[in-house]
Amino acid sequence: MKVAGIDIGGANTDMAIIEIEDGELKNIKVDFRYLPMWIRKNELKETLKELLGDEIDEVDGVGVTMTAELVDAYKDKEEGVRDVIGRVEEIFEVPVAYVSLSGMMDSEEALAKPMEVAAANWVATSQLAAAISSDCIMVDVGSTTTDIIPIKDGAECAKGRSDLERLSTGELVYTGVLRSNLATIVDRVPLNGKWYRVSSELFAISADIHLVLGNIDYKDYTCNTPDGAGKTMRDSMRRIARLLCADLKLLSQRDITEIAAYIHHQQTLKIAEAIKEVSERENLDEIVTTGLGMHVLAKKAAEHLGMKYKSMDTFLTPTECIVAPAIGTAIMMGDHLTGGI
Amino acid sequence: MKVAGIDIGGANTDMAIIEIEDGELKNIKVDFRYLPMWIRKNELKETLKELLGDEIDEVDGVGVTMTAELVDAYKDKEEGVRDVIGRVEEIFEVPVAYVSLSGMMDSEEALAKPMEVAAANWVATSQLAAAISSDCIMVDVGSTTTDIIPIKDGAECAKGRSDLERLSTGELVYTGVLRSNLATIVDRVPLNGKWYRVSSELFAISADIHLVLGNIDYKDYTCNTPDGAGKTMRDSMRRIARLLCADLKLLSQRDITEIAAYIHHQQTLKIAEAIKEVSERENLDEIVTTGLGMHVLAKKAAEHLGMKYKSMDTFLTPTECIVAPAIGTAIMMGDHLTGGI
CB 3.0 to 4.6 Å from A246: which of A74, A174, A241, A331, for a disulfide? Predict the structure, then answer.
């Protein structure tokens, strides 16, 4: 059996195609595209067709999870969920179902209960984390957000059942390895023994500091740059300088590296603080890290807290980890097709 | 004598035309346009011609101050200053001079020392504040930034001589009454007895909270909305809800007003903290408030600190206060033409 899993995020659309034989996962193929849904939602159908390619006729079913309904092209989440479902349903001739907070739902049920499928992608990812450790906290650091999901007895048991609730339970931290405006991470930065307040414009993003620090390379910088300029080290440094209303004539490369390292540490602390909250409440002391920022941020946060951790990339390839929600969705869809969920 | 003063900001271009007779200020006329220089710098010439109208042939001189050189359409500030000067010099046939950290400069000198005229608009405004109180702290809350400038013996004595330096001396706080991303003001907000982390996207801006709180009305909301939607109370509420990954089905109007009031208070504290820093260092205990946010934020900050304050709008009309740097620039240009500066 061949099953596709699709994760339609606000900024990226990810795909996994898995092959299952006799209940065993035999093969995984993954791919993804940068698709900013707030300006290009009309391209979703084409993007999905492109991602699936020839295999669109070979899959036995398609599982879908989404977070794109939050983008400000939609009046509210319900409108967003319905729009995404509408676009997806036009494409496939095989069964399609949607990840919800309580298993897979077909389009009819999903359209009737849109809030159950809104932003449920972490449910799919937690399936994979639970396979690695049946009692743990999954820390999935994506391009934009971080999911911190408690897992007990092999099943996710997040206290928050919506993004809004998870923002209050420590289970969602809106910071990520690429797209976070640096001005949302720090109010001020130290430099040569003095503190500087920062500009609140969207001048530089987390991808810029992680590029400068060597945490990612330019191929990982898959989102747009805030100023529309390039993705070289020098471009990123210029953007970081602008955070202090400065430029590369006013600040040296060494200054900028010092600033970037400080912001990286503060971003780590933001995530660590939320992990601690979940860990203490749920009495869980092991972390499974995943997502694009699993080493850059999740691992650092675990180390800061002195907690033991396993990386999902010990079990999956790095690229597979980045699209873990899509793989989890495909697995849930496979179970659904065979009557499991 | 008739003199024009122009303040070319990143987001707004303001103009004042003053008439001086026998050294006395007889008449002030002001106007402004929203001109986002990071995307529409090519329209600067047309905008200036439109602002001056028929009086372009009547003025005896034009003073110019700028902050637009910081926008990310420019590689660095020097390039920005030179570009703005180049555009301005093509328009006028009368003398033009530029506000610098050490008086007015003609274009030749300004092109030779671009960093002296970069972001010197607060020098112009401080001329007006000094006329109100010869020993005070001017707090000028604009759409995007707040200048906190110490004045002694009738002259500004800011310790920072560039935006970068002023970010470290408490003399520049990058927060304002319209354009500030709410995610740069708060990391979390209280609601119904719980704390919620916030999204780090550009979902809602300070204009949204101040509109919802009745601090400004829709006519004051002169910048673009982050989502391209309208400027009604409901539109602003929807944007604020999105800051918590929520919408108007999940949060009530009362919830959103509670959130807005909290963010307003935090924004006030940011400004108050910097005023305190300058006040203690410079031994100054009186505040002169000005700018679009003079009542909404500067006055609140003064009250929070228990400091006495005078509003510039006791001496000028509210609109004149909003374009105070342009008026100050015109006055400096008048002095320059008569050999004063």
Answer: A241
A296/chain B closest Cα distance in angstroms? 19
SS3 of residue A104 by DSSP? strand
- pLDDT at B225 > cutoff 90: yes
Q: ipTM value of the model?
A: 0.89
Q: Tell me the chain A residues in contact with residue B177 when contact means C-beta distances shorter than 8 Å.
A: none
Q: In terms of CA atoms, which chain B residue is nearest residue A239? A: B72
Nearest residue of B to residue A250, measured between CA atoms: B164
CA proximity to B162, closest of B175, B172, B174, B148: B172
As annotated, the residues of chain A forming the CATH 3.30.420.190 domain(s) are 134-306
Range A2-119+319-337: architecture per CATH: 2-Layer Sandwich (3.30)
Token pair, residue B107, equals 């274009």
**CATH superfamily of this structure's domain B134-306:** conserved archaeal protein q6m145 (3.30.420.190)
**Nearest chain B CA: its distance from A242 CA (Å):** 8
For chain B, what is the largest distance between any 2 Cα atoms, rounded to a whole number of angstroms? 64
- Residue B179 is given by DSSP the state S
Q: What chain B residue is nearest to A192 in terms of C-alpha separation?
A: B168
Structural tokens at position A142: 């994506």
Give tens-digit pLDDT for A222-269: 999 999 999 999 999 999 999 999 999 999 999 999 999 999 999 999
pLDDT at B330: 96
A 10 A CB-CB count for A14 gives 26
What are the start and end residues of each CATH 3.30.420.40 domain in chain A?
2-119+319-337
B163, A245: Cβ pair inside 8 Å? yes
**Which residues in chain A have their CB less than 8 angstroms from residue B183's CB?**
174, 181, 184
- Distance from C-alpha of A266 to C-alpha of A185, rounded to nearest angstrom: 7
pLDDT digits (tens, 9 = 90+) for B43-102: 999 999 999 999 999 999 999 999 999 888 898 889 999 999 999 999 999 999 999 998
Task: Give B234's Cβ-side CA count (13 Å radius).
Answer: 4
Residue type, A155: A
* d(CA A299, nearest CA chain B) in Å: 22
> Length of chain A in residues, anyone?
341
Calpha distance A322→B336 (Å, rounded): 62
Amino acid at A62: V
* Single-letter residue type at B10: G
Pairing of strands B286-290, B308-311: parallel
Integer Cα distance of A243 and A128 in angstroms: 38
Neighboring chain B residues of A226 at a CB cutoff of 8 Å: 72
Q: Cα–Cα distances in Å, from B236 out to B191, B195, B245?
A: 18, 21, 14
State the DSSP string of B244-273.
Answer: TT--TTTS-HHHHHHHHHHHHHHHHHHHHH
Residue A341 above 70 pLDDT? Answer: no
